Amino acid sequence: MLTTYRRILARPGALRFSVAGLFARLPISMVGLGIVLLVSAATGRYGVAGAVSAAYMLANAGFAILQGRLLDKLGQARVLSTASIGFGVAIALLVVSVQADWPIGTSYVFAAVGGALLPQVGSCVRARWSYVLDRPADVQTAYALEAVVDEAVFILGPILVTLLATAWHPVAGLAVGIVACVAGTLAFTAQYATEPPPHPRSATSGPRPGMPWRTVVALAVVCAALGVLFGAAEVTTVAFADEHGHKSWSGGLLALWALGSLTAGILSGAVPWRNGPSVRVRWGALAMACAMMPLYFVGSIPLMGLTLFVAGFAIAPTMIATMSLTEATVPAGRLTEGMAIMQTGLVAGVAPGATLSGLVVDHQGASAAYLVSVGAGLVAAVAAQALPRERRTAVPEATRVAP
Question: Quick one: which of 55, 121, 308, 340 has the fewest CB in 10 Å?
């Protein structure tokens, strides 16, 4: 099974940029929570802490696509290095503003600037894999590897930032996040040999290649619905553990969910898929909805842990297929932008999902709130049906879906 992974990591520079990308992505799962821990410790007000963190996340979602366009136009080295330094300065100023008790408005501003400048390393790593690999099956394996890295980031990041903030100092978690982002991103951008060439526009280059919006919009809706599913499930799982008198176990339950996804991601990269990515997105979205249904009926924490672990097996294959279809459909000159659109959809769905599930928890209890995730999965499954059908005569992974 590991032969497929060894083959892609043997490419010159591949292991180095993938590892650098892992460290550069740690702030994705650290900074939002780190802001909550820092602001709540300094002010004692969780509402304000959540609002400052929300300003960071909304700015990140709002500017990700713009950064993706700049990455395609100007190249990864120029954009990512500038963004990482700006991100580090903005979050450092956020820490100073909170610690020095500056007006709370300054914290909102610095959080928003930091969110807007967060380097879109995940999209860039996938674009780099697409550039250095020439076999579609190898690209599929590379995307599976990055899905595993994403799960590792979302398992390790919250644990690390919480441990540092509570056992050492509230500033420590964000400080490590800043260092990981800046150092990891600069190490990533320093690897020029594997960087995809930029696609600047000029009078002689003609207009930008068209975006296959029929596919991209459908995929973006799928991602947004899955974002709602993720946000709802996280809040609901915390509430479920709290209802059963073991709120501290909620992190372990969510870690089991992520572990299931990580395991499926590893297996997915080793499987020679016979069906193309659009077929897998359709089935994967449906599997996500079906996987959440049993959670409504679970009544104990051990059984919930097992059920979440099994449910996690639907996550990574669906996300891998989504990114594979994006790579197979979007023109090379707009690939990072296309990846950023999918990431924005995911991020944009988390907050509404968390809010809606919280309302259901307050009125109907945690078990009923899992139905929010079921509903979001069904929306994703319906949206996936709008994807163009692949031609049966095409080579599965090499298929270019018509817009």
Answer: 55
